[in-house]
């Protein structure tokens, strides 16, 4: 049985316990671990590390693809193992430690981390810990539900620990397409010309001599917590689908649309679900995370092909899809996140990118990361890779939060992740603002008219009127730009008493 | 003589006066004009338009490559011809009208304008006005000192007006490399793999039947106003060259460095001049504007090849270089700005991008465009195309302005063009901060320690200390984030009395 998963027989004697494998990781090391949006993360070695940290000093720099599942970031944070963490996380315990300044968190565009490692601008990677479905006869590593940064971690690391997860379907083999850009200054074009372009190998090619330990696990990925569509998310989806329909009528898009990317979360998921009932057909996705909606679109016959870097599903969808993953195999590719998110490919394919904003301002600047301008939520993820280079950079959010005390459309965002140059369309349940080709004063008009909640509209009008007196390309009154935030802090609401 | 420049004889009867040609442009039209950083701009037809606007209503949307010379934007603004203007400008009269809200200015990444036009998300382009050195026997347009957006304007426009400028050297023929990406969804990789890759035609290929008018001019480009290096710009250059040297010693770069891009302006020019005395050699440039420093580097034997979209020189350098441009031809390529600034190519080549910041903040966010957060200076230009995708995104500025009353390093920039995710290194004459791999709190430390002027250091420390009490990934005290600006407005200085 294990020989089906570890096919290079010389590696069978590398099988050991997680605790033994974890001994390869020493205090002060930089460790690259698999895992992207809870999918395909290393599940045993990190826990063994946390256990060891109870009795000896053990602090590491942890680099992953994106967020991990199974509360691993919580456990590692509580054990004080994490000194530095990049490029993304979505863990409440880690988040609190980051915001206390205890863990140094480097929030990066998800396509860029391996570029920095490869050029020796960060690193080196001492140890890689990679979950795999199998190791081939040649010593190639077959990933599981995500590729993330695993390929480059394994290639660059001094030593590699493999977690063979018997709980992951062996049928994932063949879904992955591992391509590593050639080294600059001799880099060739990345040959992806369509979401279904296969350009690499179905496994991560490394020297098997680097595989220093193999750990056997048997555990499903953490499932995604899905929130069912509600009136607001359905309204957002409705506005967006109507807009895409009008783009088709204007001859800018065909009914196949353009390859779709959707960020993680309930709004993006609701938008994609909305496409099931839309007039569009034979659609494709070129995204990072494939969620329930991808498989619902497949099953509805609307989706022809999906490329991503990970598959993150609800428990119900996991139970439905994973045992039958072979059935989807000819319509699916999982790529390194460097390729799924590569500016070159995104610009070439002409992607429609739909990402969730934490908030946006009346000029179309988007905050994706910092609550109140200061406290990290999760990180920018791939939203910058996609929005900057997309055919259409779309940001969605509900207009209100916290029972209506907070407006998600504000005079000035206190942290900018995507600026006016990169944001084409913003949508709330109130409506949609098409910002393309508009000057800032024109954008303020359509955003206030179309997107802000009625409860905050007069307040926004007041600010904008005062700002206009000050003049400029982008009128602001700096002394009052953040009064909605200071009021929130003082009174618990952005609304005046 | 004219037959040497207009080689397709059927076009000779299209020669007419600027006033006659300008009649092709009607009120309400969208017009694409050649011109990038004063180079290769249409010089006669825009003035004829302004003249006509004295007697009839004539308002247009004007799209160019980048800034124009000869005060053309001033003349057009004063004649109220400009209703909308994009994607860049650097004219004081136009700037004032923009900031009064009279001209709608759309500030775009310079690589993106033609992408939006081609996909019909903006436009259509009614008339293109293109300066040319010649028209070939096939009707191909040979540009002059810039390519900018001229190729796509000419291809997309209903009608094309050519300004044959006898004052531009015919020897420019052969320098240009005109490549237009194929239409999505069938776009091929852009085959530039090195600054010297020639991938297109030496002229703009259009149907000669579209050439509706030809105007003959005889006028040099406006020369660049150059400021000689001073102590501060020399210090900035020194810090940067020392940094690049340390990157070579660490094995991250070779002594050839990586292809260089430098924004326009005296600081970038001083940095490039500094390279003449550096240990680096056989360097290349993959930039947008080639300035005096490019030719000084050629003449010093340090530079092997330069690719750009325009050549903008001082009067003295024009007089020296242009008559001998043939001598440089095998080391020079001028490309469409879509290609010189293309994210795909910039990421592939691994460019060292050096751009001027208006100001930056203690966390490494850069404002390139908005004075005081509200008033447009010139526009983002290509800095976003380059910084986001560069191997190294470097921003330079003097630490002080206006006789020391203004600090160019502030607690929070009131407009963000390049955020923490895109800025690798910041430099003032005080020193250099290498931000790679640092969390925001760590960045604040090195920026305050290395870059801010001593007169503002305590003030910045005070702000940061207070901000730390508030906590977060990126500590701020929003109520006081802009007090330096409000103090400047009230007292004329960012420094307290």
Automatic annotation (TrEMBL), chains A, B:
**One Pfam family from the UniProt entry?**
AcetylCoA_hyd_C
EC annotation from Swiss-Prot or TrEMBL = 2.8.3.18
Membrane-spanning segments: none
Extract the GO molecular function terms from the UniProt entry: transferase activity
Enzyme class, first EC level, given as a word: transferase
Q: What are the record keywords, sorted?
A: Transferase
Taking every annotated instance into account, which residue ranges of this chain make up the domain Acetyl-CoA hydrolase/transferase C-terminal?
Answer: 329-459
Query: What NCBIfam families does this protein map onto?
Result: YgfH_subfam
Q: Which family does it belong to?
A: Belongs to the acetyl-CoA hydrolase/transferase family.
Q: What is this protein called?
A: Succinyl-CoA:acetate CoA-transferase
Organism, scientific name? Kaistia dalseonensis
């Amino acid at each position: 049985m294990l020989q089906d998963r570890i096919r290079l027989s010389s590696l069978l004697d590398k099988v050991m316990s997680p605790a033994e494998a974890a001994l390869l990781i020493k205090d002060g090391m930089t460790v690259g671990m698999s895992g992207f949006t809870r999918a395909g993360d290393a599940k045993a070695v990190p826990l063994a590390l946390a256990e060891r940290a109870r009795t000896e000093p053990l602090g590491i720099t942890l680099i992953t693809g994106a967020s991990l599942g199974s509360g691993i970031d919580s456990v590692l944070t509580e054990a004080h193992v994490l000194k530095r963490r990049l490029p993304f996380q979505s863990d409440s315990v880690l988040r609190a430690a980051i915001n206390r300044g205890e863990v140094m968190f480097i929030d990066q565009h998800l396509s860029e981390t391996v570029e920095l490692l490869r050029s020796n601008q960060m690193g080196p990677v001492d140890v890689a810990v990679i979950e795999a479905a199998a190791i081939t006869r040649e010593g190639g590593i077959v990933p599981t539900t995500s590729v993330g940064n695993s390929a480059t971690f394994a290639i660059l690391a001094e030593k590699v620990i493999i977690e063979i997860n018997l709980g992951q379907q062996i049928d994932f083999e063949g879904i992955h397409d591992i391509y590593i850009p050639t080294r600059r200054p001799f880099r060739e074009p990345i040959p992806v010309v369509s979401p279904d372009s296969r350009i690499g190998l179905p496994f991560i090619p490394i020297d098997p001599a680097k595989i220093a330990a193999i750990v056997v696990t048997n555990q499903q990925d953490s499932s995604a917590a899905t929130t069912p569509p509600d009136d607001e998310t359905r309204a957002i989806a409705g506005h967006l689908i109507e807009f895409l329909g009008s783009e088709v009528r204007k001859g800018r898009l065909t009914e196949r649309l353009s390859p779709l990317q959707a960020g993680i979360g309930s709004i993006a998921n609701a938008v994609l679900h909305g496409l099931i009932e839309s007039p569009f057909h034979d659609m494709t996705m070129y995204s990072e995370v494939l969620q329930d909606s991808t498989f619902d679109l497949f099953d509805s016959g609307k989706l022809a092909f999906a490329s991503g870097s990970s598959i993150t599903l609800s428990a119900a969808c996991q139970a439905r899809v994973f045992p039958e993953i072979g059935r989807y195999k000819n319509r699916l590719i999982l790529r390194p996140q460097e390729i799924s998110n590569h500016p070159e490919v995104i610009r070439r394919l002409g992607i429609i990118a739909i990402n969730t904003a934490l908030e946006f301002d009346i000029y179309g600047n988007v905050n994706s990361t910092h609550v109140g301008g200061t406290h990290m939520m999760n990180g920018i993820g791939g939203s910058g890779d996609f929005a900057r280079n997309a055919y259409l950079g779309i940001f969605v959010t509900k207009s209100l939060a916290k029972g209506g005390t907070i407006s998600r459309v504000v005079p000035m965002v206190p942290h900018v992740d995507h600026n006016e140059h990169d944001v084409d369309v913003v949508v709330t349940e109130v409506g949609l603002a098409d910002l393309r080709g508009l000057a800032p004063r024109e954008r303020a008009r359509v955003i206030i008219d179309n997107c802000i909640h009625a409860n905050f509209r007069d307040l926004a009008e007041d600010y904008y009127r005062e700002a206009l007196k000050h003049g400029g390309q982008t009128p602001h009154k700096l002394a009052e730009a953040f009064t909605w935030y200071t009021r929130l802090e003082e009174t618990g609401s952005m609304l005046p008493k």
